[in-house]
Amino acid sequence: MSVTTRAAIVLAAGQGTRMRSRVPKVLHQLAGRTMIDHVLDTLAAAGVEQVVVVTGHAAEAVEDGVAGRASTARQEPQRGTADAVRVGLARLPASITQVIVAMGDAPLVPVEVYVALIGAQASGHEIALLSARMADSTGYGRIVRRAAGEVTAIVEERDADAATRAIDEVNAGTYCFDAVWLRENVARAPASASGEHYLTDLVGLAVADGRRVTALPAPRPELAMGINDRVGLAAAERILRNEIAERHMRAGVSIVDPASTFIDATVQIEADARIEPFTILRGETTIAADAVIGPHAQIWDSTIGSRTSVWSSVIESSSVAEDVQIGPYSHVRPGCQIGPRCRIGNFAELKKTSVGAGTQQHHFSYLGDAEVGEEVNIGAGAVTANYDGHTKHRTVIGDGAFIGVDTMLRAPVTVGPGARTGAGAVVTRDVAPGKTVVGMPARPIELRRRSRDG
């Protein structure tokens, strides 16, 4: 059994009042995932074996949001970042030798930064911290260094003199500590006038004790800092979506206009797929090779097969096979399975429907709660009347059937293989294989003729 040596404490107890939201700040969405999900993903990629999320404000919601991904510890009451780390440390085993302290609202910190902090701390520093050089450092704690470059303290702006305020290197709030030293010293952080204990004070205490502290400047300051309000959230969204688009393009995906394309972090796209402008891909969506998506397509939690095209249409929680054409202005609602070589055209809508290979549904029609076979023709205006006011019922259409223009299929009903319905037919009873039914209510055509001739 391996011994856990590296852990992270993620600070997520704050109220985030500047977000002006009922939703806890760390649970706000960014490219399809919560802020704290992005933090947990990056820590895992950096080789962090165990994570404790310290909660406080809206603790139950945050705990539910990280369930199965991290353990949690509540800070009650909230008495500053040093106290939050003390609470998190109590949940970590004694085998831990390194502790990363990360902010739950800093989702853009790259994995390389965590790896660098881990390496810097392991090289003989009790504390390795992340700094950023900001053109406007207002509101941030300043990193104070000696002439030779050694870090001596973090000075909060409210305590800084004019010379310290002029420093452009600020504390980004991300650290890696020697775990033994942290356990022995976290309680030494003094109380502020408001009774809070701040993690930044540990830097000065460590230096005063002759311990080594290093600060690593972030390569891109905008990735290092936490998100405080919705303006910052939108800015982070732009940064992350640009990175997602660039990653896909470098992997062989053509994205015609990244600026007008929105792809969630959870989306997978194979090489040689093409994403046209004004396309939105969300959730657990997978796009196969040589598919063409867009322009103006929206796809949620769906699988799109090779060489399939989706144009000006919406697909939700469904699977679409290879060589399918969908659109324009089609709506594939949740629970659909579209077979290979199908054609779903203008103003066609489907819901909880399976469609067999080669079936055509070209014009303004509705298939709901249906099982449609292979090589079926769905005429313009055809509708499955699947709801009787109390219960949804199924419609079954066999292979090779021909559903005429303006046919209404009152479920539950089965149209057998090779059967046909005439224009305007209202089908209230099952249609035998190979039979043609016409009229309202629909009856086999030979019975209609016999009735007319008699």
User: Beta-sheet strand percentage?
Assistant: 25-35%
CATH superfamily of the largest domain: Spore Coat Polysaccharide Biosynthesis Protein SpsA, Chain A
Unreliable sequence segments: none
> What class would the helix/strand composition place it in?
alpha/beta
Q: What is the average of the pLDDT values?
A: 94
Tell me the number of structural domains.
2
Radius of gyration: 30 Å
Q: What is the count of β-strands? A: 40
What is the CATH first-level class name of the largest domain? Alpha Beta
The main sheet comes to: 17 strands, mixed
Distance between the termini: 89 Å
Tell me about this structure:
The protein has two domains: 219 residues, Spore Coat Polysaccharide Biosynthesis Protein SpsA, Chain A, CATH 3.90.550; 201 residues, UDP N-Acetylglucosamine Acyltransferase, domain 1 (3 Solenoid), CATH 2.160.10.10. The protein has ten helices and 40 strands. It is α/β, with parallel strands linked by helices. Helices cover 20% and strands 31% of the residues. The strands form six sheets. The chain has a 17-stranded mixed β-sheet that branches. A nine-stranded parallel β-sheet has the order 14-17-20-23-26-28-30-33-36, with no helix packed on it. A seven-stranded mixed β-sheet has the order 5-4-1-6-10-7-11, with helices on both faces. The model has no long low-confidence stretch (mean pLDDT 94).
